Amino acid sequence: MANQRAAGQKAVIVMIQDDFLDIIDDSLPQLGFADRSSFIREAVRQRLIRDGVPVPASMIAAPSRAGKGGRPKKEKGVALVREEVVEYEPKKKPKPKL
Fold first, then answer.
1. Is residue 15 assigned to a domain?
2. 24 and 90 Cβ atoms separated by less than 8 Å
3. Residue-number span of the structural domain to which 42 is assigned
4. Is the pLDDT at 66 greater than 80, yes or no?
């Protein structure tokens, strides 16, 4: 069933400005992430590690949704985990015509 979480998984709601979210969304493909959730989990993990809190990479993987319903998904490989910081220049959006 949609919107059903696996055991041990909690939803976290974060308010983000539209422009900041655009930067995140635009950068996902070049950073090797398939979705926002994977990117945000990895970003939080990197910050904790940088501040001396050990977090195993296995903890950031989303719990399996196998058998939970929803649309069929193509099989994907393991999520890419990065340890380096990448400089990013956001794309400029054209101004709307009035």
1. no
2. no
3. 31-62
4. no
